[in-house]
Design goal:
This protein is of the alpha+beta class. The protein has 2 domains: 79 residues, no CATH class; 110 residues, Immunoglobulin-like. Helices cover 39% and strands 29% of the residues. It has 4 helices and 9 strands; from the N terminus they run ααααβββββββββ. Strands 1, 2, 3, 4, 5, 6, 7, 8 and 9 form a 9-stranded mixed sheet that branches. Strand 6 and strand 7 form a beta hairpin. Helix 1 crosses helix 4 and helix 2 crosses helix 4. It binds zinc ion. The site of zinc ion has 7 residues, from helix 4. The site of zinc ion (ZN) has 7 residues, from helix 4.
Length: 220
């Protein structure tokens, strides 16, 4: 016989056996309420009355039940709030991580070098085609931090760099500042080539006021 059945049976008999319709010796409802909510100490005689007066015991049990239900609701709300905090935290973490990513990509741009010094070039005024310039330069289709070594005889100063497709449409254009570094005229450019198609392209470099120098570039 389990203890829960004994408890239920005692509870049922206490609710049944002591009708007390005259409410003899019953505590004030406010006091009974306070006892049920355990906001006051229950004396031995009060405990005896509650367990020997069916209406008082009924009230006592109802209030206890109500308190337990509210507590269960509060626990569920607290659990839901905890879950919400975890979800919001996860979202914030994910968003923050994504926001962080572009900066990291910029910092982690792939370094690449184009050495134009040993290459043949053809001038923009020539009638030749880009494919005649050899050998072809090769660039990976990545977010590049490009270092350019200019051909011998090139001057320092402001340059315009363009990347052209096979039909010589401009895909990228930016300004460069070329300076003498270790006896070589050098410039840096940030080129994001990730969205471009692979294949033959043309790199065009022009010092402001000068003519274009064109180089074949293979995007891989
Ligand atoms: Zn009573």
């Amino acid at each position: 016989m389990d203890i829960e059945r004994v408890r239920k049976e005692l509870q049922a008999s206490a609710l049944r056996e002591f009708p007390n319709p005259e409410r003899v010796g019953c505590p004030d409802p406010a006091v009974l309420d306070a006892m049920s909510r355990r906001t006051i100490e229950i004396t031995q005689s009060q405990l005896h009355h509650i367990t020997h007066c069916s209406p008082c015991f009924q009230t006592f049990l109802s209030i206890r039940e109500e308190i337990q239900k509210k507590r269960a609701v509060r626990l569920r709300i607290a659990a839901a709030a905890c879950a919400a905090v975890i979800v919001v935290g996860a979202i914030i973490y994910t968003v923050a991580d994504r926001l962080k990513s572009p900066a990291q990509v910029a910092v982690l741009a792939t370094p690449a070098t184009l050495d134009l010094r040993p290459l043949s070039e053809y001038r923009g005024t020539d009638s030749g085609r880009a494919t005649e310039a050899k050998p072809a330069l090769i660039l990976p289709r990545k977010n590049l931090r490009l270092t350019l070594y200019f051909p011998v005889g090139a001057d320092e100063g402001q340059y315009t760099l363009q990347l052209l497709d096979g039909q010589l449409h401009t895909l990228l254009k930016q300004q460069l500042t070329a300076t003498l570094q270790n006896h070589v005229v050098t410039a840096s450019a940030d080129l994001d080539l990730r969205s471009l198609t692979p294949g033959a392209h043309t790199l065009a470099i022009q010092r402001i006021g000068d003519e274009w120098r064109l180089y074949s570039v293979e995007l891989q």
